[in-house]
Amino acid sequence: MKAKVKGPYIPPERGATERRTIMDLLRDEPMTAKDISAEAGIAEKRVLDALEHIRRSAPSQGLRLVVEPARCRSCGFAFAKRDRLGKPGHCPMCKKTFIEEPKFRLEEI
Fold first, then answer.
1. What is the C-alpha radius of gyration for the chain, rounded to an integer number of angstroms?
2. Separation between Cα atoms, residue 64 and residue 78, nearest integer Å
3. Angle at CA 55, nearest 5°, toward 49 and 60?
4. Sign of the CA dihedral 75, 80, 83, 85?
5. What is the CATH architecture assignment of 18-108?
6. Per-residue pLDDT tens over the stretch 39-89
């Protein structure tokens, strides 16, 4: 039986990281976390974690993460002062849960 001759190790092709993929998507148009999740094939929770990191690291690349706040579809209340990036559970004004998700985009500083 002949011995197999191995060649040099060639690492597998590396694709873009999750954060880089999300950043590329956000340069095109505003997207919700759910839209990003569907487009990139990443779990929504991981998208929100990545967006937190992008918010902190984008200024070093000359970019800024712009958050269009979530809105109540019933009364129109905007969650403008909210620091968390996820969708709120209910409206503090009318207590309804019909909330439009926040949208995210990247723009140059």
1. 20
2. 21
3. 130
4. positive
5. Orthogonal Bundle (1.10)
6. 998 999 999 999 999 999 999 999 999 999 999 999 999 999 999 999 999
